[in-house]
Design a protein that fits this description.
Bound molecules: pyridoxal-5'-phosphate
Order of helices and strands: EEEEEHEHEHEHHEHEHEHHEHEEE
Radius of gyration: 21 Å
Strand content: 15-25%
Number of strands: 15
Largest sheet: 6 strands, mixed
Structural class: alpha/beta
Helix content: 25-40%
Number of helices: 10
Strand order of the largest sheet: 4-5-15-10-11-12
CATH class of the largest domain: Alpha Beta
CATH architecture of the largest domain: 3-Layer(aba) Sandwich
Distance between the termini: 54 Å
């Protein structure tokens, strides 16, 4: 179907909501006067040339550059979850510590995607997601870091699509950042598809003389996958430094599939050789085997997704819906271990016999 312009409802850049009590401006931030010409210290926010790990050098679409947008390496530590089965150790890779607003797995993909956008001479990026998408928030932040405008298409429920989306959660962050937000109803989103919607907005911006760069939903495409190929190199190096830790399984939630695809490919090609499990929060497992296949075909890996990943259904009540038991688990884990989990990305693992909720982090399970 050919979408018409009325599919999208524009709510920015002139939100008709007053943002009150927001006093943090440049005026009350510490400023440093430096005479050097460098625009940063220590490489953060700089563009650097990229060399893949040796075990990934035969893949295609090797990125030439990346931006340093997050704090890496993120720590890995033992996670003393309550009621673990005997002889099971769970370790956690804290990708939630990659950076406050960028927290999580999205920033690893955006380091490559933003470098590509800038290399192509874009002046703005377009991306798409659910109304409270973490990916859209992270993209809005990363875009401003590299001085690009950001256009978001957010899918919301049909009854709310004509309402102002408010200033809650990720939307507050996006609107503070001045991201342009178009709303689309979930029904239209499914009918029209994210590619046609981003193309529509792209056309509109091109007509206005802008130079848009489209980032697919979740930042998951073959270029974005390099973020998690690179994460495998990071884990390998951390293991080397630590001595004798060895991980048998890596468990991660999947939403758009890029994280699990990069990890599974990296684990298979590198010395890691851990089994990678993806827990789907939105589609059935068949969808993700195909989706991972598309990603790894894009990199011409020659591998079959069924050989490198196991996908489990963890949809539960449905995307972004939690039962009372699941929410209690989030609370128990927070109280027992200090780790806050994102209920959207639950991970119902048969391995652990508990329901795990991931906040942008991956769980690494060693069985000794
Ligand atoms: C996006 C997201 C995931 C899923 O990653 P995909 O690469 O989209 O599959 C998992 N956990 C959190 C917290 C996320 O924001």
């Amino acid at each position: 179907m050919v979408p018409n312009t009325s599919s999208l409802r524009l709510f920015s850049p002139n939100p008709n909501v007053t943002i009150r009590r927001w006093t943090s401006t440049a005026a009350n931030c510490a400023a440093f006067n430096v005479s050097s010409t460098a625009s940063q210290i220590g490489g953060f926010l700089s563009k650097k040339s990229y060399t893949p790990p040796s075990w990934a050098s035969d893949l295609s679409l090797v990125p030439s550059h990346s931006f340093t947008l997050g704090q890496f390496p993120t720590p890995i530590h033992k996670w003393n979850l309550p009621n673990l089965p005997k002889d099971t150790e769970v370790w956690i890779k804290r990708d939630d510590l990659a950076g406050m607003e960028l927290s999580g797995n999205k920033v690893r993909k955006l380091e490559f995607l933003m470098a590509d956008a800038v290399a192509q001479g874009a002046d703005c990026v377009i991306t798409v997601g659910g109304i409270q998408s973490n990916h859209c928030r992270a993209t809005a932040v990363a875009a401003k870091y590299v001085n690009l405008d950001c256009y978001l298409i957010l899918a919301t429920s049909t009854i709310l699509v004509d309402e102002d989306p408010g200033l809650v959660g990720n939307l507050l962050v996006e609107r503070l950042l001045g991201a342009h937000i178009d709303l689309v109803s979930k029904r239209e989103f499914v009918k029209i598809g994210s590619v046609a919607l981003t193309d529509l907005l792209k056309e509109r911006l091109l007509e206005k003389g802008r130079k848009p760069y489209v980032i697919s939903g979740g930042g998951s495409n073959s270029l974005g996958n390099w973020g998690y190929i690179e994460a495998v190199r990071e884990i390998e190096q951390q293991i080397q430094l630590s001595g004798d830790v060895q991980f048998d399984d890596i468990v991660v939630a999947c939403g758009s599939g890029g994280t699990v695809a990069g990890l599974a490919l990296g684990s298979q090609l590198s010395s890691l050789k851990a089994k990678v499990h993806g827990f789907s929060v939105c589609y059935n497992s068949g969808y993700f085997y195909d989706n991972v296949q598309d990603h790894i075909d894009g990199l011409q890996s020659g591998l079959n997704s069924h050989d490198i990943v196991r996908i489990e259904d963890a949809k539960g009540l449905g995307y972004a819906m939690s039962t009372a038991d699941e929410l209690k688990f989030v609370k128990d884990v927070a109280a027992a271990t200090g780790i806050l989990l994102d209920p959207v990305y639950r991970c119902n693992t048969f391995l652990l016999c508990v329901t795990l909720y991931l906040i942008s982090c991956m769980i690494v399970l060693p069985f000794k």
